[in-house]
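Why do we bother with a discrete structure alphabet at all? Because it lets us treat a fold like text: something you can write down, compare, and reason about line by line. To make this less abstract, here is a complete entry for Flavohemoprotein. Read it the way you would read a sentence in a foreign language you are learning: slowly, and without expecting to understand everything at once.
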Amino acid sequence: MLQTKTIEIVKSTVPLLQEKGVEITTRFYEIMFGENPELLNIFNHTNQKKGRQPQALANAVYAAAMYIDQLEVIVPVVKQIGHKHRSLGVKAEHYPIVGKCLLQAIKEVADAPQEVLDAWAEAYGVIADVFIQVEAEMYKEAEEQAGGWSDFRPFTIVKKETESDVITSFYLQPVDDGELSTFLPGQYVSVQVNIDGEQYTHIRQYSLSDASEKGYYRISVKREKSIATQNGIVSNYLHDHKQEGDTLLLSAPAGDFVLNRESELPVVLISGGVGITPMMSMFNTLAGEKSSRDITFIHAALNSNVHAMKGHVERVAKENDHVRAYTCYSEPTEQDKENKSYDKEGFIDLEWLQSVVPSIEAEFYFCGPVSFMKHVKAMLKEMGVTDERIHFEFFGPAASLD
């Protein structure tokens, strides 16, 4: 239980965190990796360079200060972060390191007096305990469920399939031929790779792109660009160097962006680019269960060259009257135009979205680039969709869609 004086001091730092939060968290990562370079085996180096991780941490620290006397308010965020930490292998012993470096960053950037540092040290201890307890339960659940495991488990690539010019699917089965744990549609796994010439291990999280209980896991990986900045170092490695028969190290499935299978409302799945991957898991799960819920599947891509899994979605829609599939191409090829292989040219807009979505009384799920998701969320809010029926997933650190 925090002292009243501690709560008052921490809350008083909210304006400071709003102004200098990213500067503090950027310095925090510099200190932490400088003193503990082994942690670079866990954290995504690209997200550090692009600034997304410092921004996400700054938002989390700001929220913690804002609700330090109502920590139950941030439990959903704690659980979301906890899923990522568990899949990466963040453990309880890492939290004292984080606390020490965070306090040092606050002191350096904000020139904070000792009274503020002491209050934050006390508050951090309480917040860290919440994370540690939540993540301990997640580790236990992942390991103890049927077919579950801890840390990373070797899988064999039993099939490698080109889905488009930029996306390739990897079908994976455990090397030990043991039982495979089930997962919730929308969840992801972490893939750990050691690349020749790289000093540190790289870990990336990829959505499982098929339904559970099929005897394999499937991830569908987009080849990213800018290897020089390490944005794409793992995806290019998987595309170019990992073949059928090779092994990959996977964490147990994680994530809280999952299909609500208890709801009977219609489902609207909206994806942009490689954001299609968690949607395919949801789509295939509903199709495999012979669900009677109306399903509207909307995908936006540049053109057919980069549109993955289009044929499969169209076949399912053709075979089921309650399934509708729509495609938007922002830059259709001449062949796309000749074949009329899309439903809308350009970007998804409000008028078109309203014309294909039968009702706002539905569960809406969307995923894609941050700018795409901001646009989709704004349209859904303008349509009158309530917050509890809007569900979305970030690839990478969380950001604001408002």
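What the structure line is telling us, in plain words: The chain has a mean pLDDT of 92. The CA atoms of residues 63 and 121 lie 16 Å apart.
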